[in-house]
Amino acid sequence: MKLWKMILLIFALGAVIIYFAVDFIHQRHISEQKEFTGKGENWEVFSKLTSEGERKYHHHIEIKYLGSDNEINIREWKVQSNGIATGGGDFMLDNHRVIISDDEIGTSSIQFEEQQFFIKWNDDNSEGFILKIKEN
């Protein structure tokens, strides 16, 4: 009976070691996060990037309109940096704010200190500015 328990224990320990070795090789355990913020004349943006493994990342973006217009038609917007870009458009802004969460494939390394933000809204308005790493 003792031999049977010893074999089972060795098998279980081997399975755990193999699981962690595969996890390490695929770098699924690595998660890096950076937060960026920026403000222009009409817009304020918060962007949070979290890498989730080899080439997957989660991008959380909050875009806030600072102007006085009540109806804001977002024609196009984009947040980009080295190897990572998220964007969209053609929607009406609700309560002067929109929150976007995206899971994307790109680079897993967030090795940059800024992002570029660009937006077009209503008829012919556009604005762009730099998002810098958020100071805590």
Number of helices, counting only DSSP H or I runs of 4 residues or more: 1
Strand content: over 45%
Biggest sheet character = 9 strands, antiparallel
Helicity level: 10-25%
Order of helices and strands: HEEEEEEEEE
Mean pLDDT: 84
Q: How many beta-strand runs?
A: 9
Which structural category do the helix and sheet elements fall into? alpha+beta
Distance between the amino and carboxyl termini: 59 Å
Regions with little confidence, pLDDT below 50 for 5+ residues? none
What spatial form do the alpha-carbon principal axes imply? elongated
Task: From the alpha carbons, calculate the radius of gyration and give it in angstroms.
Answer: 22 Å
How would you portray this structure in words?
The structure is a single chain. The chain has 136 residues and is an alpha+beta fold. Helices cover 18% and strands 50% of the residues. It has one helix at 2-26, and strands at 33-39, 43-51, 56-65, 73-81, 84-88, 91-92, 97-105, 114-121, 125-133. A hairpin with a 3-residue loop joins strand 1 (33-39) and strand 2 (43-51). The longest helix has 25 residues, at 2-26. It starts with a helix and ends with a strand. The model has no long low-confidence stretch (mean pLDDT 84).
